[in-house]
Amino acid sequence: MFDFGIKDVIDIVCVALMLYYIYRLMKESRSLNVFIGIMVFILIWLFVSQILEMRLLGSIMDKLVSVGVIALIVIFQSEIRKFLYDLGGHHRMKGFIRLFTSGDKKNRADRESIMPVVMACMNMGRAKVGALIVIERISPLDSIVETGDTIDANINQRLIENIFFKNSPLHDGAMVISKKRIRAAGCILPVSHSIDIPKELGLRHRAALGMSQDSDAVSIVVSEETGSISVAIKGQFQLRLSAEELESILTRELIL
Predict the structure, then answer these.
(1) pTM of full prediction above 0.85
(2) Residue 75's Cα: distance from chain center in Å?
(3) If I label 186, which of 68, 83, 141, 148 is the partner at 20 to 30 A Cα–Cα?
(4) pLDDT tier, 99 (very low <50, low <70, confident <90, very high otherwise)
């Protein structure tokens, strides 16, 4: 007789949640057809090996499954990495980290590093100076830093504005801020090929979105054409921000 208890309910719920999050991950990365194909293959494999008990075909499919798991990890390594970054960057996880940090002093230091960025973006927006700033969070951006010129300086409003001045040799690339310091400028970012980006947004916006899709970083864009300020987080844009809105977003996203 088959016993069905609370453990079985928890087991089913956990599997359902796992499949749901895998579905969301595949949908966000536009790999939904691959997910559906994998599920169809698993159903056929279970039907052949468990119900029909076809030993030869079942053993062949067993080998394909064991090799396929490794292949999927290689193919979807960026999506898996993004999922783990999102898991580590969850607000509840941040709350847990806060228990082991000196909250007030850290928050004050974080706000002091945020305001120069906000003020620089507002000044550049008024002057219609294009800028692209990437702020590191949990996922390291060492590979991005290596594509630019190392600066390693304190976060300073005038320094940010001078780097993105139109005649500056570094103004076309992205600035990377990490651990409350400007690590590099003139960096090259991955460009998003999403068809959902409005046509009026340029290459800087596509690079900012691509960076937010590949990592948990916060990307800030100042438009050279309109002077408007936008932020890309987790593959989503927040457009035409005021100084107060930009400060609020950075405070919420960057302070534990």
Answers:
(1) no
(2) 18
(3) 83
(4) very low
